[in-house]
Design goal:
The chain is an alpha+beta fold. It has one helix spanning about 55-95; strands at about 15-20, 25-35, 40-45. About 40% of the residues lie in helices and about 20% in strands. A hairpin with a 4-residue loop joins β1 (about 15-20) and β2.
Length: about 100
């Protein structure tokens, strides 16, 4: 009898990130994802020789990295809003009228 090799699937590889479809109130997980090692779109049941076990530590690291990026973007957005607020305040002080027309 031939000994079967254990098949490693992409969905439990540390390089795989699932793709989600945005619905009205939820996100639906698709059967495809992105492989960061091959830099390509793959099906979740595919496999390759670059497969690595997805440990909880790896998942935490990716999640932490994504959170870090999100926090940086939020800070950049808030700084942009502060600049806009300053412009609106200066316009209000100059004209002593509301900068936005009434609804």
């Amino acid at each position: 009898m031939e000994e079967q090799e254990k098949q490693h699937h992409c969905y439990n590889c540390r390089h795989y990130e699932a793709v989600y479809l945005k619905k009205i109130c939820t996100f639906e997980r698709q059967n495809t994802g992105f492989c960061s090692e091959n830099e390509s779109v793959v099906k979740k049941r595919d496999g390759c020789n670059k497969w690595k076990y997805d440990t909880p530590g790896c998942r935490y690291g990716r999640r932490f990295l994504r959170k870090d990026i999100v926090y940086k973007r939020i800070i950049e957005t808030l700084e942009g809003l502060k600049v806009l607020e300053q412009i609106v305040r200066e316009e209000y002080e100059e004209n002593k009228t509301e900068p936005l027309p009434p609804r």
